[in-house]
Amino acid sequence: MAHIRTAWKISRLSPPPFRRLLLLTVALALTGCVYLRLLEVKNQLQDFDHNFRVEIKDQWYVQFLHPVMLSGDFTYLTELEPTRIERLTNGERWIVDFHKLDRSDRIAVPRKTLTFTMQFNQEDKLSRFGFSPLFLSIAPPAFLEASIRSMGKGSVDTGHRQLRVDPQDLPKIKAQLPTRQSIIATFGRPLLETSEGQEQHAFYRFIADTRPVHGNSGANRLAEVRVSFDGATGELTRMMGKFVGLKLRINYRALLAPPAQRSSAHTDPHRPAASEAR
Description:
Blueprint: H1 32-44, H2 48-51, E1 52-56, E2 60-64, H3 71-78, E3 84-88, E4 91-100, E5 113-120, E6 126-131, H4 133-136, H5 141-150, E7 155-157, E8 162-164, H6 180-187, E9 192-196, E10 199-208, E11 222-230, E12 236-243, E13 246-251, H7 252-255, H8 259-262
Antiparallel strand pairs: 1-2, 2-6, 3-4, 4-5, 4-10, 5-6, 7-8, 9-10, 10-11, 11-12, 12-13
């Protein structure tokens, strides 16, 4: 297999045009073996219930019932080592920690850490991916699961290095969304706050507690998160995040059920529960 070069980035975290209802953007400028494995995962998402299972333990996990991705794919795509590796009887658990930075680019006190967990089986294939509770405060479980499910219906735009999901293909969620007040209480003081039109934005910056591979600069260690809120209600409207070069964008308004349907929903957005959109 010929050597391939990964371009695992898309664009700045500047707000997209309001008319653009792009739910999820994922860089996919890959060729060769890694791209084929990513494409197979994307195809598996078309039948989510046959290929995946949601687990609720110490984290919110997606279990891969038919694993294809390898541990080496992670280091290849990110050019980073995990924070730590735990040896298991049936494989390994890789953990990546992202620590919040303050306005002086130092690790914030008290420490706020986003943790992602990958478990690889005895064949070195990714069998589980976990999201920590702190991440779920900006990507509530019901909306996160719906976003992952919708990727199976997305179309790959190789020219713009994106996986796009048509808003018409999105499920409608009845769960309540968190507010600006609750997110700032959880995450602490933002790096920056701005207003644009009817929205307010809060920006956070994190650094991965990892080492770069191949002696590179480790630029992928820096992560950015922007959360947007309705200026009138304070309700979360959008989340844009860039972690180790992967850019994730969720438009919560595009996922919300009509207000009349949501009025009867009493789902706690911080409770790690599976999505209602099945």
